[in-house]
Amino acid sequence: MGGFFGAASHHDVVLDVFFGVDYHSHLGTRRAGMIFHDDEGFQREIHSIENTPFRTRFEDDLPGFHGCSGIGCISDTDPQPLLVRSHLGTFGITTVGAINNAEQLVESYFTDGNRQFMAMSSGAVNTTELVAALINQKDDFVSGIKHAQDAIEGSLTLLIMTEDGRIIAARDKVGRLPVLIGKNDDGFCISFESFAYHKLGYDDEYELGPGEIVRIDADGYQTIAPAGDKMKICAFLWVYYGYPNSNYEGVNVEVMRYRNGAVMARNEAAAGTLPDLDYVAGVPDSGVPHAIGYATECKTPFARPFIKYTPTWARSFMPSNQEVRNRVAKMKQIHIPELIRDKKLLFVDDSIVRGTQLHETVDFLYECGASEVHMRSACPPIMFSCKYLSFSSSKSEMDLIARRVVQQLEGDEGQEHLEEYADSSTERGQCMLHAICEQMGFDSLGYQSLDGMLEAIGIDRDQVCTYCWNGKE
After folding, report:
1. Which residues of the chain does CATH 3.40.50.2020 include?
2. Are 325 and 310 in contact (CB under 8 A)?
3. Which residues of the chain have pLDDT under 70?
4. Superfamily of domain 2-231
């Protein structure tokens, strides 16, 4: 996915932007960059962070940066932020989202008499450059941003820094991602994650509404396009993506995860399906708070039967080679025999997407002597690849374990009954659970219900995007 951070102040903001961007490193593993502006113009650097953390990669660049305004990003897509020169002036731009109709937009751009894009080595166009081109088709930034958001199938949240050092922030038109403003005595910042600016001494000031566009400088912020009425914020921000300290729409991530686990355990107890257990554990690290909530509710000890060794590889999917990623994931799991051998264990994971690494985890636990391994997912079965933020994005929906098992059970006919399969109270839902259990080696499997997850989030359910689970816009 990705994240961004920007700041405008009466004093130099290089360190604020550096640390602010660094605090978004959990959101992407491919590219990162920063742009700063001072009286002499712009300075920019972009680096790969696939094998080196952001902080380490950019520390040597800090002496060359200076300015009272700056923006930066962590990106799981193309190199950015970009520096663009157009009839709107010279500006820096960074984007977060997904463009599903990029090729069609590129072809349309050419047919309008435009000549070229810079092509990457793959031949594709940098999506942030495409967004800039769409913005430049209009006579001002507000009209251009709205034009780009309307033309794109997917989502678009962005930051622009203009040649006067001001920052323009635009939240996706239905607010799939958050955008927040912080304030201190010297200026203002704009961020995806609230905790990023709290640690830098900024206080909460304002949260943009869906489709809202604001302009920020050292003296304040101004809404230059009002928020819309419709919001579809991504539920995975709470379930998985968001950092524990962050708040979205007034709901803290960690608190939601405790509540989510408790709702799962409560509903299982009511249904009489709670297994007899020695310990409840989380699949490190994102499943841990869900597991704490589950354990607390069902009054079963919480434990950590295995620990992730992270000093060398902070995230198992950082290496570009799949074989290396699989090996790293396995090498990181350091078990504690005393908490596994002859024990009945229940693990809670944030989600079960493809199931590849989870299968290896279960094998690992049985090899270590576990007597039973039960698995719970903190969200419902993922039935659709995300087309808005690229979470669970895959070449085929048959990569998703739930869809693959449905196909195995009933062929194409099963694809017409996905809603039933996603509901464990139905006969089809039970069949899917049993089939996944057999394939993965679980003693039992349970998914959080859609209603339970939305209850744990606690905001109006019509304002939450649930496309991954029910395919509804």
Report:
1. 251-470
2. no
3. 112-116, 118-123, 310-331, 391-395
4. Aminohydrolase, N-terminal nucleophile (Ntn) domain (3.60.20.10)
Q: Which residues define the annotated binding site for Mg(2+)?
A: 286, 349-350
Residue 343 DSSP symbol:
-
Q: Enumerate the known binding-site residues.
A: 234, 286, 349-350, 386, 465, 468
How far is it, in rounded angstroms, from Cα 306 to Cα 284?
8
Query: Do 250 and 194 touch, CB atoms closer than 8 A?
Result: no
pLDDT in tens, 356-397: 777 878 888 898 899 999 999 999 999 998 888 876 556 678
What's 381's DSSP letter? P
Spatial distance between the Cα atoms of 385 and 401, rounded to a whole number of angstroms: 11
- CATH 3.10.520.10 matches 251-470: no
The CA angle 254-195-166, to the nearest 5 degrees, is 145
What would the DSSP string read from start to end of 218-242? TTEEEEEE---S---EETHIIIIIS
- Tell how strand 89-99 and strand 154-161 pair up: antiparallel
For the purposes of burial, counting CB atoms within 10 Å of the CB of 145, is it exposed (0-12), middle (13-18) or buried (19 or more)?
buried
Q: Is residue 427 within 8 Å of 227, Cβ to Cβ?
A: no
Domain with CATH 3.60.20.10 in the chain: 2-231
Residues 6+ away with beta carbon under 8 Å from 158: 93, 94, 95, 96, 97, 131, 145, 169, 170
H or E element that contains 470: helix 467-470
- Residue numbers in the known binding site for [4Fe-4S] cluster are 234, 386, 465, 468
Instruction: Tokens for 422, please give them.
Output: 């996603």
